[in-house]
Design a protein that fits this description.
TIM Barrel; 8-stranded parallel β-barrel; 324 residues; two-stranded antiparallel sheet; single chain
Length: 324
């Protein structure tokens, strides 16, 4: 098995070959009855994640509150918010899942991402996507049908911005002729870019260009096939393997033996089944799971502490997995 490429502190910590790590999606609160969270206690809970040993926290890029989408995310600007959290945490990786590249000029994304990576000591993971909320595009004067092309140009621009005095020619974002530079640069040799879904590209393009793949929860058999396809394409185009991650909605119950009941993109369950399920994801090649507690019915601090006590130790590196 190939190793993953060493990129920055966050990437090297969160993604390990044949291992699975656990993160949490922000907002860390229950807001299942509405579009918008309160964001109360958000800082204390982010600091608690850091203290308890979760590998990553993940925020989202939601420029507009689109009611039909059903979720305003953490509401705060992702880069401003991560800059704030970078100053308030010490070890946890700071992830964005994901910046809708066509809705931003890539020079701003490159500069903001490198700034956070520098200020946090290399703790940034940058998820990128083409975006799928139609209403945002006409609101910004951008053609929705062009988002695939815009995504590719922005992706390559952000990659090129890591070079000193880059030379870049684009159709949609202007040209750089090597006489001006974009500062700062990433803490190490580049920002890790994690593809979300297909982003209007082929899986071959994604495997060749991205540093990892975020995909949505699927039936484990389907997910296994997707991961195998991804890894085969990566092996054909890269010197390094590349990780696979997914989100998972969880409503954690006090009874460890509580049998799973389906909820949106996840389940209501006790710890025992949750660990069994996560072991299975690990066995099919998932390297990281970001748990979303939007529908969690118990007290949030209690839930985070129970996950840290009964789930995180099961997925420490080199711990043998129980048979399932």
């Amino acid at each position: 098995m190939k190793n993953f490429e060493p990129i920055n502190k966050a990437y090297n910590s969160v993604f390990q070959p044949d291992e699975l790590s656990i993160g949490i999606t922000v907002p860390i609160e229950n807001y299942d009855q509405g579009l918008m969270p309160t964001m109360e206690h958000h800082l204390e809970r982010a600091e608690l994640l850091d203290e308890l040993g979760f590998k990553a926290l993940w925020i989202r890029d939601v420029p507009f509150n689109v009611p039909s989408f059903g979720d305003a995310g953490q509401m705060f600007d992702p880069f401003t918010y991560l800059g704030f959290l970078a100053a308030k945490t010490k070890k946890i990786a700071l992830g964005i899942s994901s910046i809708a590249l066509p809705l931003h000029h890539p020079v701003h994304v490159a500069k903001s991402a490198a700034t956070i990576d520098q200020l946090s000591g290399g703790r940034l993971l940058l998820g990128v996507a083409s975006g799928d909320r139609f209403d945002e595009y006409p609101a910004m004067g951008i053609e929705y049908e062009n988002r695939g092309e815009l995504f590719r140009e922005a992706f390559k621009y952000i990659r090129g911005a890591q070079q000193s005095y880059p030379v870049l020619e684009t159709k949609n974002y202007g040209d750089l002729k090597g006489d001006i530079d974009i500062l700062p640069k990433a803490k190490n040799h580049k920002i890790p870019l994690l593809m979300t879904g297909f982003s209007q590209q082929s899986l071959e393009w994604n495997a060749k260009n991205a540093n990892g793949w975020m995909y949505y929860p699927r039936d484990p058999g389907q997910q296994k096939n997707r991961i195998e396809e991804w890894r085969a394409l990566v092996a054909a185009t890269s010197l390094f393997d590349k990780p696979f991650m997914q989100p998972l909605y969880v409503d954690l119950q006090e009874d460890d033996s509580f049998k799973p009941e389906p909820i949106h993109l996840g389940f209501k369950t006790g710890v025992n089944y949750l660990n069994t399920y996560l072991y299975h994801l690990k066995s099919i090649g998932v390297n990281h799971v970001s748990i979303n507690l939007r529908f969690n019915s118990n007290r949030m601090e209690r839930t985070l502490e129970r996950l840290a006590e009964k789930v995180l130790p099961e997925f420490q590196k080199n711990k043998k997995s129980a048979k399932i």
